[in-house]
Write a structure and sequence with these properties.
The protein is α+β, with helices and mostly antiparallel strands. It contains ten helices and twelve strands. Helix content is 33%, strand content 25%. Belongs to the D-alanine--D-alanine ligase family.
């Protein structure tokens, strides 16, 4: 008999709306695939709700702080309920952009120079040579990201733009926006994202219908394609991930530079998300994708 799957969605992070979209899509896909499914919209009452319904497995569709940083993973370990995606340590490491970059770089993956500074310092003066990018150290979906271009003044950061008062300043890498999906440790494919009107890949470009154009598969020089596939697998293994991940890259065709930006341990599963599109191109329907993710669930820190 197929397991009883509780799909966690919502949460309290800045990515709550994305998580709800992902969660409902995954619940519908699992139901179509024949699973018994409970949709569990949560804030801070996850344990109570799970103890009431007693699922045999949890599909973690939470995004952002509390959902993919090791916190809910630790709770599920203590409850003894197998769950999808990466475990406690890998989730916490991947969520912290600076620490994840250190690990990836130590395994030969190319990253851009970056530093951690306070939001107050980043607002007061330029913290590195222009152009650069300011990002929350631990957040996703392009929340709180600022590109500081040549000639611009430092942005005035509100401390609530990030989950902490610290932000990461990273050298800006021009060029193409690329992402690679990894399934069970093996690279699945690469997609290129072209935001509309020449904008950057911000929240609206990611989640609004028509916000960006996706080229799948990405048309790349063979050597760059091979490197992206290989670096994505290396990062997945080095950080200790399991299940599905998605690594983001920038490639400057003028200089040939290729930079790994970060790894997403719980990629979005919304109607405009990249992982399902890559999977579909390789013959993996949405129903098969979410079923694979559930079958991969386990208890492992």
């Amino acid at each position: 008999m197929d397991p009883f799957v509780a799909v966690l969605m919502g949460g309290t992070s800045s990515e709550r709306s994305v998580s709800l979209s992902s969660g409902h899509a995954c619940a519908e896909g699992l139901a179509r695939a024949g699973y018994r499914v409970a949709r569990v919209e949560v804030r801070d009452d996850i344990a109570e709700k799970l103890l009431q319904i007693r699922p045999s497995v949890v599909f973690n569709a939470l995004h952002g702080t509390g959902g993919e940083d090791g916190a809910v993973q630790g709770l599920l370990e203590n409850l003894g309920i197998p769950y999808t995606h990466s475990g406690v340590m890998a989730s916490a490491l991947a969520m912290h952009k600076i620490n994840a970059k250190h690990v990836a770089a130590a395994h030969g993956v190319p990253v851009a120079e970056s530093i951690v500074v306070s939001a107050a310092d980043a607002s007061a003066s330029h913290v590195m040579q222009l152009p650069y990018v300011l990002k929350p150290v631990a957040d996703g979906s392009s929340c709180g990201v600022h590109i500081v271009r040549s000639g611009e003044a430092p942005p005035q950061l509100a401390t609530n733009e990030a989950e902490s008062a610290d932000v990461m300043a990273e050298r800006y890498v021009p060029g193409r926006e690329l992402t690679c999906a990894v399934l069970g440790g093996e690279a699945l494919g690469i997609i290129e994202i072209v935001p509309k009107d020449g904008a950057w890949y911000d929240f609206s470009a990611k989640y609004e219908i028509g916000g960006s154009r996706h080229i799948c598969p990405a048309v790349l020089p063979p050597d760059i394609e091979e490197k992206i596939l290989r670096y994505s697998e290396i990062a997945h293994r080095a950080i200790g991930c399991r299940g599905v991940t998605r690594s983001d890259f920038r490639h400057d065709p003028d200089t040939g530079e290729l930079i790994w930006l970060e790894i997403n341990t719980q990629p979005g599963m919304t109607p405009t998300s990249l992982l399902p599109e890559i999977a579909a191109h390789h013959g993996l329907t949405f129903e098969k994708l979410v079923s694979w993710i559930v079958e991969d669930a386990s208890l492992r820190r």
